[in-house]
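idk why but the lab printer keeps eating my pages so im just putting this in chat instead. protein + adenosine-5'-triphosphate:
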Amino acid sequence: MAETESRPTNFIRQIIDKDLASGLHNAIKTRFPPEPNGFLHIGHAKSICLNFGIAQDYTGTCNLRFDDTNPAKEDITFVNSIKEDVQWLGFTWDGEARYSSNYFDQLHAYAVELIEKGLAYVDFSAQEVMREMRGTLKEPGQNSPYRDTDVETNLSEFAKMTAGEYKEGECSLRAKIDMASPFMCMRDPVIYRVKHAHHHQTGDKWCVYPMYDFTHCISDAIEGITHSLCTLEFQDNRRLYDWVIENISIDCTPRQYEFSRLNLEYTVLSKRRLIQLVEENHVNGWDDPRMPTIAGLRRRGYTPGSIVEFCKRIGVTKMDNMVEMSMLEACIRDDLNTNAPRAMAVLDPIKLVIENYEEGKTETLVAPNHPNDESMGTRNIGFSREVYIEAEDFRESANKKFKRLVLDKEVRLRNAYVVKANRVEKDEAGNVTTVYCTFDSETLGKDPTDGRKVKGVIHWVDAATAQAAEFRLYDRLFNVPNPAAEENFTDAINPESLEIKQGWVEAGLANNVPEVSAWQFERMGYFCVDNDSTDHKPVFNRTVGLRDTWAKIGE
Ligand code: ATP
Ligand code: MG
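predcted complex ->
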């Protein structure tokens, strides 16, 4: 069946196939575990498509779990935006959204269990001292003087920590593993720390919070996750993940598998950097159409289908690489080429006055909405003595390669007549503002009868009925392929990433929203309506140009 054929395959799905075949599992459970400290980006979409995609294809379930162990940096706005983005991508999590903080009581009890087993201790060493004693990749660490504190004392100190008797940084609870381990994360990692902070879910109940590595594996086990999928930087942490699960009394043994992160050229995919772009006003918020966030891509005009398709095309491996922006753009272009109706808009207008066209007369012409899809129907467009054309579509003189309007030459107005340019009017700076021309009334929908060849076709908008509109054209946000490698990535911001144009669109377009909210403006690219639009002036974002312009970059 087509459906199974289009299923992606990757090393994780092969592991799942094996686990199902061997009977290790008979139902698959995955989770998507964002930290609510920023908006989701296209890298998260890769993880979402992987986790929810597996649940869909194996008739399993996928949980949405907020990894909320760091209350100081988290916020309910981020929780809400994450839910919205996952749903917009077309995925449904199992039951209610979950929170690691739902398990704080259990996590605390497991910490006590480790203390009771002599596998955790409260350390009062200063943070710098602890850091120094951890050693390096070449040298083993040293045991803390608190490492051999007896169980009773550790229990009472942890109780005091929990009761708020210690200040932040004064002490922490550490797992007692191996200070000589080749894996740094196994050198007695901190599993609980004091933090006097209000939490968006648990309020002021806690002043100790569990660390990510301790929380994540236990949350997975509590939820019965079978395959815990994360990115490669957690590879070493898998030892700690397994150690915690082995040493507490819990029935479930989830397994962690790592895949490579998505890196995309000419942008950054790290929340820390995205937060900086927003906070320092390099962009206009998280949903700025230049941002690689899901919210930014949505506002830019990307469809959920195009993002899911992108994730399918890039695949899932263990190899680190940099994906070209043109891969992402190809996905939305393919989608809109099929699904977006055509229309005409002039972004940088000059006037064309058709001197032999009767003054005051208006005509209604018919234009197809899609050149290859008759089912999309036709629309009526106005035509009269004055129309707008694109300034770059006219030249006073040009060689034969220029297939647009030239003085004393002819061109076809798309869906309308052939016109010939006769003279121009210029402003004080010498820019052409108006082109005076004549039209051939016999050329509506047919070639000139006397065999004249007219090769060029340009787009236009009827001046009498046109609607004024703003167009926002976007370019890459950074000037270098890998801004994260720069000393200061904000120095690499492209100062010309946004260009605003005031022009004209066919009448009636913006009235169709939301039924149609994306068009191909002929010859200018794919556009969508921005929510900055007002009743008297629509604002259009260019989602993507008609052709791949990225290939040229760097030449
Ligand atoms: P960032 O570095 O952007 O803050 P993160 O990993 O800290 O990312 P989380 O909210 O913890 O962000 O991520 C939730 C899930 O999304 C994790 O499983 C993480 O591995 C995955 N993820 C994050 N960034 C990417 C990426 N670029 N490619 C693939 N998966 C990603
Ligand atoms: Mg994280």
